[in-house]
Every structure is written in C-alpha cells, then in structure tokens.
Amino acid sequence: MLDERIRPSRVTVLNAMACVHRENEADDICRVVMDNGLDMDQPVQNAAMGMYARCGRIDIARRFFDGILNKDLVSWTSMIEAYAQADLPFEALELFKQMKWHGIIPDYVTLLSGIHACSVSSSFQQARFIHGFITRNFFEFQVALETALVDLYVKCGSIKYARKVFDRMQERNLISWSTMISGYGMHGHGEEALYLFDRMKTSLKPDHITFVSVLSACSHGGLIAEGWKCFNSMIRDFGVSPKPEHYACMVDLLGRAGRLVEARNFIERMPITPDAGVWGALLGACRIHLNVELAEIAAESLFNLDAENPGRYVLLSNIYASSGKRNEADWIRALMRRRRVKKTVGHTTIEIKNRFYRFVAGDRTNPQTDLIYSELEKVMDRIRQEGYVPDLNFVLHDVEEEMKEKMLYVHSEKLAIVFGLLNSVPESVIRITKNLRVCGDCHTATKFISKVTGREIVVRDARRFHHFKAGACSCGDYW
C-alpha cells in the first residue's frame, strides 16, 4: 500500500496497530503515523499505547498517554490495562485514582481493568476501595463485574468476602461458579469446593474450566478419592474430554500425596502427549518428596518443552542440593548460564497504609532497616524458645551451619512479616505476597510467629494461599 503511495486512513492504521507484537514493527507504524499527520489523532494515540504495551514497552506507552492533551475514557482505560497487563498493578491503581480526580467516570471496561490491577497486587485494601467505589456510584452489578469481584477477593486473600459477593449475586454463570470453586481450592478448603461443585451441577453442566477448578481444589486438599471420582466423571457423565491441564492436576494430586510411581504410570497411560504442565507437576512433587530419579526424567522433558523457564532448572538444582548431590546441582546452574536462562529473583510485597513495600533476601534498602533487623532478632529468639528449629535444607549454598541459619533468617518473607508487625495495628491481619513458592523454613517460622505474636498472617505465594493463625496453617502442611 505504501509502495503504491496510497495514504493510509485512520481505520487502516488502527487495524495494523491491533496486529503488532514486535517493537520494530511498532516503530515502523509510528513513522507512518507521523508522516501522514495522524500523530495527533486521539484514537490512534490510544491504540499506540496498547500496541507498545503488547511489545513490552510500557515506558513508550506512558509517553503516548502523557502526550494526549484531552484524555478521554479510552485513554485512561488503555493505560490502566497496560499497567495491569505488565504486572505493574500499583501504577495502574494510582492512575485509576487520578482518573477519578480528573472527573472521568469509569465504565465497566475501566472497572474490570482496575479490578485486574488489584488482583495482581493482592491488595485487600485496594480491593475494598474499588468495591466501595462501585457500590457508592450505583453501578448496576452485571455478572461479569460481580464475578471479577469474587476473583479479586480470592486473590487478595479474603475467601470470606469472596463468598459474600458470590452469595449476593442474582445471577451466576459457569465462570462465577468456577471462580468460587477455584478460590476455595487456592485457600485450602477442598471440601467446600466440592460442596459448591455439587450445588452447581443441579442447575448447570460443568465445562473443562470448572473441572480444572475442582481437580485443583482436590489436589490442594489432598482429596485423592474425590479427585479420581471427578476426573472419571468428566467423559462418563458430562462428555468433557480431559485436556493437558486436567492431566496435570491429576499428576499434582498423586504427586503431592507421595504416589510418585502412580503419577509416572498415569503419565505413561495418557492418550495425549504430556505437556510442560504435566511434567512440571511431577517435578514439583519430586521436590516435595526428594525423588531424584523421577525428577531427572521430568526435567529432561521440561528442558525440551520449556527450555527458557528458569523455575525448572532451579527446582532440579534444589532437588540435587537437598539430596547432597552438590556437583549435579552446580552442573544445572552452569547449564542455566550456558543457555542464558536467568533465575527469577524472589521477593515479597506488603502493603502498609496504602503504600507497597518490596523485600528481597537480605534486603537493606528500607528506611527502617535497622529497626527491622533488631525486631527480627527478637522475633527469632522468641520462636526458638517455642521450639522452632531452622531447616537448613533450604539453604542451598555450601557454607557453615551458623551462616546457613543467618541466611534463613533474612529471607524476604520474614523481613516483610517483621516490617508488618512494626507498622500495623495490633491484632490486625498481616498480608504478604511472595512471587515464588514460599520456602519450607519460612512456612514453619511463620506458624511460630503467628503463635507468639497472636497475629493472623496471610501469605499468597505462586501456588496458593496460606492462612497462619495460632501456630497452624490452613494448608495443614499439605502443600
């Protein structure tokens, strides 16, 4: 078209922008936009934000947003969703509040983007804010919006509020039921998930998404017999053919229970080719039960199917290290370097008074660092007196035991919890979010911390929620 010297219209440019996922292509289209005088066209500017956000250049998307003189609802919504999609929820939420200050009334799409940002941040306070905003402004509660709120409260650690919203819904669809069932599973309430599933079946036919939610709930709750019953009923009773994610749930269910050989045999009998999710479930189970032989089998497939995922390498390396196979662990780390696969840095986030604080292991960037470490020492002394014993298996470096203990004490989870103890109202719930799976020692320590401080502590990690109270965890140590 350009070769024929035909000037592109706004519609042509917008259609082209919607298909772009590479930065160099985005730059080419922007040059065409400039050359044809469309750079001040607001729909084009709005589309450019989404285009660069899809290309991973949220900074360029923000420059387009800032350059729009009279931002409309689409402009604000596009930038909020761009931040949420880029895992920058705090920026998205700040923009949502600014939009309100500028007198722009959000629509359902904007609200869903704001809810998405809240769910990414796991911020219970922000969830209450946006829910209250919707209620105060008399928005008509549609099924999609209410379902999004259920999902939001699930991901912010409050299954109680999620259930309240769910129970008040005048109409529920399959997604609504599946969301609530999945939420119960994530929070370790497998029996409640199954009860809800039975209720749902009286009026709706479950689909493949519903079965993923139910099987996952059975896996988190260790409900093996119930999991098999649900899996076998898929085709027999509902005509739903299992997909890779259903097989992965079953492998996870068997693996968590220590039935690793049964899980391996299950994989071999699969009528479809196992994907990375299936092998990843087996590898995760091997980490729990330290089965090196099956871990190597799972990892071999994963290194072919999911070669750029750092978690696979780290998991196998940790299995080797915990089994005393230091040379093999070092070899896996070297393999990561050769393949230029970078380990994901673990961090823990906590919200205090509408501000978010992030900690990494050994973090000393917080303004209260000295106070945090002083209080941490006191807390660790108290839980040691209650019977806490550091689990040195979770230190994978070859150092002296005393150094291993010190390394465990400064894990990001412990730093965030102590920061929460210092900066929150006594008896209030402490909520933290870990981007990776919480380590076993931190899990044990948090149980003791909840006991000696009398505080409830809610931890969201990459897999599920843990509710610590009075020295016990909602997962029943089955995770």
Key phrases:
479 residues; mainly alpha; Serine Threonine Protein Phosphatase 5, Tetratricopeptide repeat; six-stranded mixed β-sheet; DYW domain-containing protein
Question: Quick gist of this model?
Answer:
The protein has about 475 residues and is mainly α.
Spatial extent as radius of gyration: 25 Å
Strands in their spatial order, largest beta sheet: 2-1-3-4-5-6
Alpha-carbon distance between the two ends:
57 Å
Give the CA-based shape.
globular
Q: Uncertain spans, ≥5 residues at pLDDT below 50?
A: none
Biggest sheet layout: 6 strands, mixed
User: How large is the count of helical segments?
Assistant: 24
E-strand count: 6
Strand content: 5-15%
Mean pLDDT: 90
What is the percent of helical residues?
A: 55-70%
| Coarse structural class | mainly alpha
N-to-C series of helices and strands: HHHHHHHHHHHHHHHHHHHHEEHHHEHEEE
Keywords: Repeat
GO biological process, one term: chloroplast RNA processing
PPR repeats: 72-106, 173-203, 207-242
Protein name: DYW domain-containing protein
Structure description:
63% of the residues lie in helices and 5% in strands. By secondary structure, it is mostly helical. Among the domains are: 172-242, no CATH class; 244-344, Serine Threonine Protein Phosphatase 5, Tetratricopeptide repeat (Alpha Horseshoe), CATH 1.25.40; 348-473, no CATH class. It has a six-stranded mixed β-sheet with strand order 2-1-3-4-5-6, with helices on one face. Helix 12 (190-200) packs antiparallel against helix 13 (208-221). The model has no long low-confidence stretch (mean pLDDT 90). Keywords: Repeat. PPR repeats lie at residues 72-106, 173-203, 207-242. GO terms for molecular function: RNA binding; zinc ion binding.
